[in-house]
Amino acid sequence: MLVFAHGLGFVGRAVWLGGALVMAAAISQAIYLVASGELVGQLSSLRLVALAMCVSTGFCAVQFLLLKPM
After folding, report:
1. Alpha-helical regions (H) of the chain
2. What is the rounded CA–CA span in Å between residue 32 and residue 50?
3. Less Cβ around it within 10 Å: N or C end of the chain?
């Protein structure tokens, strides 16, 4: 929050977009940490890491296709 509050002093649309992306990343990390505790009990830790890597690879592929259409 301190980094976001400091950035508000700058003018521009990119500051708000960057702040929103940082907040979204922090919230998604918090959700992952809370949910992973429950999922480790259901899945093994190795399967949980493999699932998380597959999901992140999918998001990376979608971002790549959006930014560099074939």
Report:
1. 2-7, 13-42, 45-67
2. 14
3. C
pLDDT tens per residue, range 4-54: 566 566 667 777 788 788 889 999 989 888 888 888 888 888 998 899 899
> Which SS3 state, helix, strand or coil, does residue 70 take?
coil
Domain total in the chain: 1
Residue among 23, 35, 25 nearest 56 (CA): 25
Output the CA–CA distances (angstroms, integers) from residue 25 to 41, 44, 47, 69, 70, in the order listed.
25, 25, 23, 25, 28
Domain extent for 51: 2-67
Tokens of 32: 């992952």
